Amino acid sequence: MAEKYIARSKAIAARMLGGEMMVMSAADSTFFTLNDVASAIWQAADGRTPLSEIVAGKICREFEVDRERAQRGADRFVDELSQHGILLVSDQPLIDSSGSLESR
Amino acid sequence: MSLLADMNQKALDLGLPLSVHLDITYRCNERCVHCYLDHDDHGEMTTAEIIDVLEQLADAGVFFLSLSGGEVLMRQDFFEIVERARQLLFNVKVKTNGVMIREKEAARLRQLGVEQIQISVYSHRPEVHDAITKLPGSLKRTIRAIRFLKSHGLKVSIANVLMAGNFSDQQGVIALARELGVAYTLDPTITPKMDGDTSILALRIPGSDLKQIFHNQELVGNVEEFCAPPLAPGEDVMDGFPCSAGHTACYISPYGDVFPCVQFPLPSGNVRRQKFLDIWRHSPQLNEVRSIRARDLPTCSTCAHVGTCTRCPGLAYLEGNMRGPSTADCEKSFQRTGIPSANMLRRAAAYTGPLIQIQALENSSPIALFQSEASLLTA
Question: Residue B7's beta-bridge partner residues?
Answer without folding.
Answer: none
